[in-house]
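Fold this sequence, please.
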Amino acid sequence: MRNLLLTQRVHLSVSSTEIPDLPLTATAWDAATDSLICTFGPSGVESVIEVKRLQKQGQISTITSFDVPCELPSLKCDLVLSLHFFADTNTICIVFAGGNIVVVEVDENFASRGVEIVGSVDEGITGASWSPDEEVLAITTSASTFLLMTRSFENIATTTFTETDLLASNHVSVGWGKKETQFQGKRAKAMRDPTVPEYVDEGILSASDDGKVTISWRGDGAYLAISGVQNVEDKRRRIIRVYSREGTLDSVSEPVDRLEGTLSWRPSGNLIAGIQMFPDTSRIDVVFFERNGLRHGEFTMSIPGGSFEGQNIYELAWNADSTVLAVVLKGRVQLWTMGNYHYYLKQEIIYDAEGSLNYPEDAPVVVWHPEKALQLALNLNDKVVVYSWIWSVHRGTTQPPNDHGMVAVIDGGKLKLTPLRWANVPPPIALYDIQLETTPIDVAVSYTDGLIAVLRSTGLDLVKWYPGKPRDAKKPKLIANATRFQALDSVRQIAFLSSNRLTVLVDAIACCMLLHYDIDFSSSTITKAGEEILPLGTTRIVPDALDATGEFYYVENHRIVTSANDPNTKLEFPTTCPWVEMARIDGQVNYFGLSENGKLYANSTLIAPNCTSFIVTNAHLIYTTTQHFVKFVHLQTGGKDFEIPTDDPTGDERCRSIERGAKLVHVMPSSFSLTLQMPRGNLETIYPRALVVAGIRRSIEAKDYKTAFLACRSQRVDLNILHDHAPEQFLQNVELFIDQVKKVEHVDLFLSQLREEDVSQTMYRETLPRADVPSTAKKSQPAQTDSKVNKICNAFLDVLLPSRLSTKLQNIVTAYVCKSPPDHDAALLLIAKLREGNTELVEKAVEHVCWLADANNLYNNALGLYNLELTLLVAQQSQKDPREYLPFLQSLEELEHNRRRFVIDDHLGRHVKALRSLVDMGDDTFEEAKTYIVKHALYQQALGLYKYNEDKQKKLMLLYAEYLDEQSRFREAGLAYESIQHLHPALLAYRRANLWQQALSLALLIPISNSELSSLSESLADHLIEAKDFSSAAQIYVDYRNDIPEATRLLCRGSHFAEAMRLVANSGKPELLQSVVDAGLVEAFSTTVELLADCKAQAHAQLGRLRELRAKKEEDPLAYFEGLPEGSGANIPDNISLAPTDASTSGGTFMTRYTGKTAGTAMTGATRRTSKNRKREERKRARGKKGTIYEEEYLVRSLARLVERLEIVKDEIGRLVEGMVRRGMRERATAVQEKMVEMGGILKGCVEEVFSDKNAVNLFFYGTGGGDGEGDDGEGGHGPVNVNGEKKIPVVKDFERLAIL
């Protein structure tokens, strides 16, 4: 769909100076300075050659001149076969047909430093060509030899052309196509094998063949092709030989009749182009060969408005990137491109054939630039014309409602028109073909897509056509030669400034001109309205494409100027941008430019460094990237900078993945579509979420819910956006929504897709905050506690009930069923209410509700309403067998009201309701109710139902207490027994629950014997001692066993020394202070000192090991995470890749063992480990074995537990210090206090050092599993937690010291 747009045409007049009238014989590009090296002469009159340097600005400088005598009698004068400039060494190499190879050295100013003949071939040279890498020179001689030489002109290989070369490809002919081998019977034509050609070429030499040799290299320089004439079995035949870079014959072409000598190997390497003549039919084909010599397709050339009679092909030349094939004919140069396996004639350069070919016929006519793929030098007799093109899509407007997607494609004398919005016709086919007189130079489409202007070298054509749907649109109407031009080959571009004004850019001698034309639609004529002078360097004109205001801007180099009337520079891009578009944003003009190296600019700001194509609409800048994304940049930013989306097609609607190499063709915002062209040439129309959702949002804001709904339905957009984008507006306009959508099934579709998720914040998050959204459309900030689904369904029910009950019953039922949870009962009750009216309507409603929900569940719901007739109606719509439900329903019909309710509720598993029905039946069913309560454990509900009957309530409480006792809920069982004065069972329950206060109080109330009381108290005290509740155990020994010494010992074991001393003093036994209290203090002192020493040793050891691990991780992360042995880092192979790959399920990256996730699980967030493997990992983590990846986690959590442990014993140690001070053990108290303060300081330093590392914090909270919820600590716990059950970083509090110590 792309055309060649001419952006520059430079006429450079050239002539010889030392000897006048020497012909221009050769031209070569100097890619470094973008200048031309030209040779003049020799001629039949003078054997002198002049070498000149020609710059694009027009400056000409002579480099050198020298005599070139020709000693070959077959030549009137010597010819230049090859001219090449080496930019790295500033040397010029000229190869002459007479056999000399001359090297001219130049300095930095291109002044000659010497001319040297570096080699000579006595027999003469017939062809010469340098390889693309400038390292090998290929030469063919008149003696039918082939030479390969290095850049220093040392011989690589010498080969002689012989007839035996034809055996290289082993092309076998079995006679197919010869008349004597064909069956000539009556029905021969019908019986002929279609796979066999009617005629097989024999290699007949063309009558116009001049016998010359052509050499062409492949783009990588590995192979070259040589086209020459060879005698084969007393016949002359043109052969293409393919040689390797080393001079080895690789293949020979198959025979082709009338094959010409012109040859060009496509730089990409897949095709070798040649010419085949058909003089009988005045037809010329460009034929292609593969490297193996076999034919590979062809295309037939055409001359729009002319014929090939008397024509000859002078030259074939591929450009640098293999996209354009230049074919030089008499008087014209044709540029052919290929797309979707079709060759298009994109441009024709018409020149004066009589005055341009007076120089020797071997001189090249066109020379492509070696680096700038679309820059070409055309050598004429008295001048060199340099042409520069860019690829451009001739498209229509993107402004709705005229965004028909109009695209015009040039194909020689045909203009192919396709409105992509209505007919996505794959190229090379088009919806309409317009036949023109000659090949167009440029095409412009008006702002309404109703008028197309075609610029040709001799005139301007108009095409009137307003596209639309194919069945409604009329055929285009051509108005040929609406105006004619005088100067041949001077017009360059055309553009619409408004709907009725055209402007044409013309190249004049010293400037550029704009010719303005007004269009008269009534008479379909155009008249000249004026002209303007523009600078000579104007490359293109850029009209105001979106507003059609009549303003235009022209691009001069990399400047954008507003117009000729105001030549002040509007903007200057950082670099030259051949592709320029403009858009008005908030009333200001903004320019977007794309450079040849893929940099996209918005004004002077770089938007993307890797852009391949772009297009501008009134809302978006759309561009494609080399990473194969299409991106959308919002233009209406409210004065803010453009926000560029990231390369994340999953999380941002402004970015989407596309096929590799795809480029933009057109965008149609009205249909939310974007058309891309693949590298092969085929088209693909996509509907990007950015365009679709933007259009849906606009429709919602305009309250056009029907358009928004249909767009969501056709583009598979979640229908929740209709509400979520503007929730308050939607709820206020539910009736409008129903009236616009109308169809019952469409309303049902919307209701059935409702869910609680706010899709405007998740799936379709707005990427452009808009200030113009109505206040009713803005979402409220506070979180909504009510169900969104229920709110919408209720809003629909408020509108539909009761006024639209008869017409929208199906929608009403759907609204009930789609609630969360579904309100099946309300829907069934509504149907039951309608049974008295329209029976047909009820049946449809029942059928619909059974289709929406599970019929079995609906059957249960209907049964739960105790409406047997409705239940029967639902059952008949289900797939149930009547034998399953009819007997049951008949049995229910015979039961009493409450008994029927009980049976139904029990059948449905609604045991509480069934129990209530039993209670309603009266006292006669109490025993049945007790059985039912025990069966279904309905004790609490039963107590509530019998709360006014004390006797029955006590019986139920006894059952409940027995149930709690069976469930080992002894505390609650004891309370239940005691509440109904069952004291013995209550005492047993309290004893089992270790509730010593309740148990002993009941033991005294019953009462029990002293021996039983002693045994009970002893048992309870033992349990308390096991639970380390020494204070409570001591209380039992004092109150119930009168054992003061044992009570004192227990208090000392619990570090309650103050209470122990009070008890001794209160009992009047001071001797216990020394025998019991002092001994307890000494024992506690020893235990505490040992504990603090262990804690100190643990802290030092684990902190040191943690420092060592972190140092290793910093030095060599690979060895650390892989667990390699020390000293083995030097043996790690350096030829492996650590890049992650989804192809591996076990290896992953070197971080896999550390994170616990491979590439697959990291993407899905799910673990594929089995339960056995998980338990094994947990055991490894719990052990924290040295050298494993779990060691650091184990050490971090172990230090955290150490802090927690010290915090627990801090109060006990404080009570110990006070007790030792009171008993005169000052030195021991001081020692314990100092050790405790020292340990607190050590742990403070540990916490600061350990948890200053972010990785350690992650390990503490999430574990080595990387936050997957399995990071338990080494002993099955989860580390310190706060009151909410959440982890917290440990904090070391200061130990409260005694001032007297």
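The radius of gyration is 48 Å. The longest helix spans residues 1071-1115.
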